[in-house]
Amino acid sequence: MAKILICYYSRSGNTKRMAYLIQQGVIEEGVEVDTKNVKDVKLEELKDYDGFIFGSPTYYGGPAAPIKDLLDRSIKFHGKLQDRVGGAFSSSANVGGGNETTVMAILQSLLIHGMVVCGDSSGDHYGPVAIDRPDKRSEKNCIRYGRRVAKLTRQLRD
Amino acid sequence: MAKILICYYSRSGNTKRMAYLIQQGVIEEGVEVDTKNVKDVKLEELKDYDGFIFGSPTYYGGPAAPIKDLLDRSIKFHGKLQDRVGGAFSSSANVGGGNETTVMAILQSLLIHGMVVCGDSSGDHYGPVAIDRPDKRSEKNCIRYGRRVAKLTRQLRD
Amino acid sequence: MAKILICYYSRSGNTKRMAYLIQQGVIEEGVEVDTKNVKDVKLEELKDYDGFIFGSPTYYGGPAAPIKDLLDRSIKFHGKLQDRVGGAFSSSANVGGGNETTVMAILQSLLIHGMVVCGDSSGDHYGPVAIDRPDKRSEKNCIRYGRRVAKLTRQLRD
Amino acid sequence: MAKILICYYSRSGNTKRMAYLIQQGVIEEGVEVDTKNVKDVKLEELKDYDGFIFGSPTYYGGPAAPIKDLLDRSIKFHGKLQDRVGGAFSSSANVGGGNETTVMAILQSLLIHGMVVCGDSSGDHYGPVAIDRPDKRSEKNCIRYGRRVAKLTRQLRD
To answer: Which strand (E) or helix (H) includes residue A130?
Structure first.
């Protein structure tokens, strides 16, 4: 059965909140999910998941170094994660503060792994973003994104 | 049965060559495909395809205006192309000349439509690029990409 | 004396509003400025300006085709605009809707011309963005950005 | 007198080679320069430089985590590096392998600091890239970029 890893880095708690909202969407779609702080993710685990959703606060327009470090080390499984499903989300302090480029930077890493990613025509297009604490708009988009990625993972990997 | 549109803009013929190499890959995967110059694509046709692969020479780091114009006008079907499959390719004059940002710009447009896109762990990661006339490396990557996008389209849309 | 062109495409009027706010900042800094709708910009004029600020609504994550078309045709002056100053701004319907990638796409085009661009540590970092009609935050950031680009143009080109 | 820091991360030696080629260009322009491995850069030093050129191998389409970590920690001086000069370079294993997105990711970080960056109309447009060991083309572009960033730093900061 398909299984998704939601892996986040969070200091203020905003990205963590987004992670659990996305988790709610994945569960609603009936897909198994583990949600973990990046510091609790063992490199070896990566090969066990069918889908991956990485979340980070927006740090200088990209993912926080601990997320990037895990992605860098994931080279150990380069080629083995091909055709799995990927996704990304980010919280930031400002509109125009780099959240889109953070989401795109993570998606680029996942495309380099050969993963499959999806956008959304009506939510946050590239992946969920929140300005500070997720508001109603962001909550809805996180749940919606969780459902979309979960559904895609089920279609491709079950 | 799933059907893919390869839509290109080309002046020197390099992007057109890439289009037909990608077409070859799509056909090898047994998926129906139309390959058209952007000037021959009617807006209404877009709703008839399950997958879309857009190609452009690298013009100032992004797709040529005629490709962007079609993408802009595709707003007529906004929301209706959700969950279809997307892809992108680009030819350019130089390494480091903007081909990756061109491919990513097209993929971003397709993600905003809610499409599903795939990277590649061993070819050109974001989508095929060629420096000038496609060489052996680029030929192989184009065919490989055609197969990958076709397979994904079949999985999701047949 | 240094002179800046602000060139915008606008349908709803939001991007045009941003253009005139940015113009206000340029004027406050004592730099000459022309603000024009892209349809009124003659290609030949480009060589007469020391700085360029391009603005577009966010269309599928990038600049509208008429802006891209002008950038594409500016190849006529490729190499001649080296070391001039560039800038970008965008209005969009949604947070996370592609405004940052639109600003970055324009900046990439200007970098390919060899131009000099500046970010901002406290306003909209890559360039001003507005969600719908520019609000107070966006107004302030537009004026601030106009001043920053004008000052840089003066420093480098006067 | 203006002073530039070239800060690199390198494992194979290719990015380090690029760093010293860029250094050569900076010196040719008569600007003072320190070239350091990222592990030898103390956070406090950042405030002492007028220009910064960061280089990294292309790791999953972005800068290596140690470079990103330094950029993340540079928040300590957020606002204080405004109007200084920035630049970026990257080495990678493949064409289309993410080198442009790596250079752009670093430039985005520097724009968020409010820095001023320049492209190049005839070399590698966003910043120097090398495929494997820098070849003649790449050597020339590195030296050229060093000169360009040095000249800009002198103009703005001397």
So the answer is: strand A129-131
**ipTM of the prediction greater than 0.95, yes or no:** yes
Of A59, A74, A105, the CB nearest to D72: A59
**What is the b/e burial string over C6-38, where b = at least 16 CB atoms within 10 angstroms of the residue's CB?**
bbbbbeeebbbbbbebbbbbbbebebebbbeeb
User: Is residue D95 pLDDT above 80, yes or no?
Assistant: no
State the pLDDT at residue A96: 67
Of B46, B48, B57, nearest in space to B130 by CA = B57
Predicted model pTM: 0.98
At C25-71, the pLDDT tens digits run: 999 999 999 999 999 999 999 999 999 999 999 999 999 999 999 99
Does B104 sit within 8 Å of A119, measured CB to CB? no
**For residues C96 and C106, is the Cβ–Cβ distance under 8 A?**
no
Percent of all residues in chain D with a pLDDT value above 70, rounded to a whole number: 99
Tell me whether residues C97 and A128 touch, CB distance under 8 A. Answer: no
The whole-angstrom distance between B16's CA and the closest CA on chain A is 24
**pLDDT number for residue B93:** 82
D71 touches chain A (CB under 8 A): yes
Is the CB of C122 inside 8 Å of chain D's CB atoms? yes
DSSP output for A86-119: EEEEEEESSTTSSHHHHHHHHHHHHHHTT-EEE-
C80 CA: distance to closest CA in chain A (Å): 30
Closest chain C residue by Cα to residue D82? C121
Encoding tokens for residue B116?
A: 């599903």
Q: pLDDT above 90 covers what percent of chain C?
A: 94
d(CA D75, CA C121) in angstroms, rounded, equals 10
| Nearest by CB: B125 against A81, A112, A116 | A112
Q: Do A96 and C125 touch (CB under 8 A)?
A: yes
Tell me: pLDDT of D52 over 90: yes
As given in the structure block, the two tokens for residue C138 are 């966006």
Tell me the shortest Cα–Cα distance from B100 to chain C, in angstroms. Answer: 12
Contact C37, C68 (CB under 8 A): no
Q: How far away is chain B from the Cα of A144, in angstroms, using its nearest Cα?
A: 12
Across the interface, do A112 and D105 touch by the CB < 8 Å criterion?
no
Return the closest-CA partner of residue D7 out of D27, D22, D25. Answer: D22
Q: What is the pLDDT of residues B116-131, one digit of tens each?
A: 999 999 989 999 999 8
Spell out where chain C has E strands: 3-8, 32-37, 51-57, 85-92, 116-118, 129-131
Chain D CB within 8 Å of residue B128 CB: yes
